[in-house]
């Protein structure tokens, strides 16, 4: 496996793309190009810990199934130069990462039409904002910034794990359930103010930006999440259902916030302590497999459509 870290912007060491690339076996060569996936860690936009549970381990979990996997460290308050973490910097970072992968598709043995993204918490917000805006409201911004076409930064799917989809909802939750985000100080690096107005909150809420032009989305959340309530995912699922975007949604009774791959945080080597929420991973892999190869999908016809009553 080839592991390499690439700086995405000249003159900056905070926005990086790390590769986890399977190399071709000279005796057992695979058929066709490989799908790719970018893991995007959370961290409340204050940090972006690649080496935590939501970064490298997630990339490797997909790499073992043959994906060419990556981890994106995006602009955040701790590492970015002053003013460089303001929205939509992270959407631009993601576009740059995808463009970089497509530019190296032949070298890295990747099918450029089979690139997906998977994010957690703030990283999930990055993925959801990208999926809902890269080819609509942010298309002009991204293509002019990168000197490319929209097709050069397209994705196959977005996987959003315990994601923030509605900033209006989150601000209300923070007021009613005091937590480390309630004072609004964490908003300043990304919004430019502690308590943005409702129009600004909606501008950066994926549920407000979702359209039929977006790619399919996979959603997962724990209903006991005490930081980013599961209602975020429920509202996003309702929006996707209403407008007719292909999606899959899984809610788990337990897991709270930050379950990542579902391993026990303090004793990850004990299988008996794995959270039920860990099952999001095989479910997500099935979801992606059906998009990669539609012949793997079994669709049932409506058994009641021809009923005489």
Condensed summary:
By secondary structure, this protein is of the alpha/beta class. 30% of the residues lie in helices and 17% in strands. It has one domain (2-295): 3-Layer(aba) Sandwich (Rossmann fold).
Question: How do the helices and strands follow one another from N- to C-terminus?
Answer: EEEHEHEHHEHHHHEHEH
Which CATH C-level class is it? Alpha Beta
Rg, nearest Å = 19 Å
Total DSSP helices: 10
The overall average pLDDT, rounded, is 94
> Could you say what the CATH architecture is?
3-Layer(aba) Sandwich
Uncertain parts = none
Explain this structure to me?
By secondary structure, the protein is of the alpha/beta class. It has one domain (2-295): Rossmann fold. It is built from ten helices and eight strands. Strands 1-2-4-3-5-6-7-8 form an eight-stranded mixed beta sheet, with helices on both faces. The longest helix is centred in the first third of the chain and has 15 residues, at 89-103. It is globular, with a radius of gyration of 19 Å. The N and C termini lie far apart (60 Å).
Task: Give a topology summary.
Blueprint: E1 2-7, E2 16-21, E3 34-40, H1 56-63, E4 68-73, H2 89-103, E5 110-120, H3 122-133, H4 139-146, E6 157-161, H5 167-176, H6 188-191, H7 198-203, H8 206-209, E7 217-222, H9 231-243, E8 247-252, H10 280-292
Parallel strand pairs: 3-4, 3-5, 5-6, 6-7, 7-8
Antiparallel strand pairs: 1-2, 2-4
Helix pairs in contact: 2-3, 2-4
List the keywords.
alpha/beta; 8 strands; about 30% helix; eight-stranded mixed sheet; Rossmann fold; 10 helices; about 300 residues; globular
């Amino acid at each position: 496996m080839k592991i390499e870290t690439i700086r995405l912007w000249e003159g900056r060491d905070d926005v990086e793309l790390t590769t986890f690339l399977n190399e071709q076996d000279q005796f057992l060569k695979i058929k066709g190009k490989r799908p790719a996936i970018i893991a995007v860690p959370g961290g409340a936009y204050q940090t972006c810990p690649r080496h935590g549970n939501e970064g490298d381990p997630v990339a490797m979990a997909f790499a073992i199934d043959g994906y060419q996997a990556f981890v994106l460290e995006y602009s955040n308050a701790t590492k970015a130069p002053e003013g460089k973490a303001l929205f939509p910097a992270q959407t631009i970072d993601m576009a740059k990462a995808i463009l970089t992968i497509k530019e190296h598709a032949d070298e890295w043995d990747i099918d450029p039409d089979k690139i997906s993204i998977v994010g957690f918490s703030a990283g999930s917000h990055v993925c959801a904002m990208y999926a809902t805006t890269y080819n609509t409201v942010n298309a002009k911004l991204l293509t002019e910034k990168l000197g490319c076409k929209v097709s050069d930064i397209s994705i196959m799917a977005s996987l959003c794990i315990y994601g923030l989809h509605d900033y209006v909802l989150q601000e209300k939750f923070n007021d009613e359930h005091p937590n480390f985000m309630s004072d609004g100080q964490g908003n300043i690096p990304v919004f430019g103010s502690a308590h943005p107005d409702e129009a600004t909150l909606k501008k950066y809420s994926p549920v407000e930006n979702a359209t039929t032009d977006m790619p399919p989305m996979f959603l997962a959340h724990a209903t006991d999440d005490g930081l980013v309530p599961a209602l975020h995912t429920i509202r996003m699922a309702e929006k996707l259902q209403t407008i007719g975007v292909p999606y899959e949604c899984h809610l788990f009774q337990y897991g709270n916030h930050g379950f990542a791959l579902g391993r026990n945080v303090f004793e990850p080597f004990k299988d008996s302590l794995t959270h039920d929420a860990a099952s999001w991973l095989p479910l997500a892999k099935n979801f992606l497999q059906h998009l990669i190869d539609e012949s793997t999908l079994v669709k049932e016809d409506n058994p009641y459509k021809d009923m005489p009553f």
